[in-house]
Amino acid sequence: MQYRRFGRTELAMPVFSCGGMRYQYSWKDAEQPQITQASQDNIEKVIHRALEVGINHIETARAYGTSEFQLGKILPKFPRDNLIIQTKVEPQSDSAKFRQLFDQSLENLQLDYVDLLGIHGINTPELLHDCVKPGGCLEVARQLQAAGKVRFIGFSTHGTTDLIMQAIATNQFDYVNLHWYYFYQNNWPAVLEAIKHDMGVFIISPSDKGGKLYELSPKLLELCRPFSPMVFNNLFCLQHPQIHTLSIGANKPTDFDEHLKTLDALEVAEEFLPLIIGRLENELVNTLGADWVNSWSAGLPDWENVPGEINIATILWLHNLAIAYDMIEYGKMRYNLLGNASHWFPGKNAAKLADYNLSECLANSPNAQKIPEILAKTHQLLGSSSVKRLSQT
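User: That's the sequence. What structure does it adopt?
Assistant: Structure tokens below.
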């Protein structure tokens, strides 16, 4: 395992973290008698495997159902100083509720403190306000820190780059959990801003939300050779020293295996990554055309300013990935979240495109004439039954 300084926390963070949102028994809280022994045994095997390979950062959240409760049955068995434990609590307009949720987390985990407390899902200006206002969630987190129950405070986000940078600019957070990987690089300015503030940078779900890279398309396999798409994406992220750790949402002990191939490959990353990126970029141009690749995102309106709140930018991004790289299943997963995931994946898909005239909102786009047709075709390709976030299932 390799380790990187996690910003001003000074923690030696493994470059992979063990995310806790995929191995739990249930997305709803449950008492021990309801949790099967098979589920508990599996979590214990996952944690043992993580620690065996040097992944000592265990990350979970109050919103992850039984994850904390089940971890609380195993984490106290290990030397506490050897672990970096992170949980996350969603921001609340009532800070007393935030404190209550944290207290429940700590009780579930059966620990005296957590190393990292993340305010979970600063995705809108309103939620940021709930955090930083006088008497808000951040003030409660500081009280917990003063009481020795929290070492460092950060936030996780699915918000816009501008919002993330606003949160970082408060200089109130020690680290950030955000999305950034090869197939979604929009948040790079936020990563650089975090580094300016000496914050730790944790990448959320690079293999699932970063492309569903465990469900391979033959085309993507060929383009990423000699690595798997998963290892390529890990290498792409970790070649940047500004990136400190990547989350592995392990469901079973063997889920670490492919990721671990990244460690040896880091030695040859500088040799192979330019070749792979060149192939991927050429395929994008060959499939979609240089004019579209160079201009598709220009002049697009924010989803709030589009009739029917159609998230045009996200739909076109998913269209590009689906057409150029055959990332159809990933596209379906993300496309059908639109309209069903609140502020976690905002805006709506193009199901009701025919009801609206987009000419005015697309006035600044050089592709205004062709975009409605592409939106319609993307809906035909990716649209299916609505998809919920895992925590809603």
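Residues 3-267 form a domain with the TIM Barrel fold (CATH 3.20.20.100).
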